[in-house]
Amino acid sequence: MRVAVVQLAADVDSASNREAISRQLAELGADDGLDLVVLPEAAMHDFGSPDLDLAPVAEPLDGPFVAMIAAEAVRLGATIVAGMFERTDGLPFNTLVVVGPDGALRMTYRKIHLYDSFGYRESERLLPGDLEPVVVDVAGRPVGLMTCYDLRFPELARELVDAGAEVIVIPAAWVAGDHKLDHWRTLLQARAIENTVHVVAAAQGGDRYTGHSLVADPWGSIVVEADSHSQVIQADVTADDVARAREVNPSLANRRLGNDRLPNHRTSSSS
Question: Which of 131, 189, 242, 267 is the most exposed place for a label (fewest CB within 10 A)?
Answer without folding.
Answer: 131
